[in-house]
């Protein structure tokens, strides 16, 4: 994505290439207004108005573009994304109306992760004009938040370890005049013992830490955002197979979502007292790694038997959620790449959502549907809590029956969220296995926009 050129700009009548949007049903009638040569050009490109098709139509010494969409009267976030990917560098204007929600995919469709490999054929920015000037700033901020998630998740673990996540939090705090406190290394053992246990086997420059960013007026309602920052997950002593480690650079995807969301909250000046918590670790293997059968102390005072060292994300989140609860928040939202069970149940496109309150779940689902980032709610059944029981500790970190893995992980986290607190948990994939318009293969944000739109509706701007 172009970093220096805003990809959405105000329409002040400047020169721009026209874009027409048409669907398959309306195309036969629409195409009749064109000249025979123009119709022939579209026939040669096999353009029939199907969604995500792109057509180039000669027009004297110039040309205009045609995009196929499902419904030109009700655009989605992604319906113009293929145009942004396929068209040459330049400035464009939709002819029959404003791009509206399609401004998002226009920007995200131009994302390129080029930190390690430059594109063989670099393409300049494709700028889209709109007369909805009041929506531009918000649209750019939202796309930038998605870009940040993608950049952080796509970066391999050696360059995106706990220290690098701390640097991201520092940059965020500096940008928004927030305060950042960091507890790291052996200093974690007293106040955040599970974060310490999971991360203590990592090399010194990847030492575990917990970042706590605060922002906003103390008199405003408290919003706590928590993100799982397992920067690489070997599985610990319950080691993953090689195939299971290939994507484990993305296991800090929850932290990436939390950091990006906090940036949106502060950038828009939401009327909240924000607390961002990012526990960051590498689940490594060494002589001092925590073991199956170990019993860990927790910040809350509960004891946890380790049934599986590869169920480590819930451990570090447990301490962070307890700390967040101590602020007496009106709402806690956490993001985590927590279970493979959520992906088996829902696939990559739907983040699993678990909440204590039905109205919070519905608000997130409604917001997600409105912005094409829909989560899917999974239950937190009381009857499954017994699956986390232990003979020697207050609870086990892993069930042994293999049932309802995402919900059981959510029930573990629920033990560390204060009683009566409104809480939403996202078990998100943070990775797109195959490209779609506006959504290239690689790291991606799921549930971020749904949560942002819900928070904006709930708390409002400054």
From TrEMBL:
Pfam family, one: Peptidase_M17_N_1
Coiled-coil regions listed: none
Superkingdom: Bacteria
Organism: Erythrobacter mangrovi
Record GO terms (molecular function): manganese ion binding; metalloaminopeptidase activity
Name of this chain's protein: Leucyl aminopeptidase family protein
Domain Cytosol aminopeptidase: 308-315
Bilayer-spanning residue ranges: none
GO biological process: proteolysis
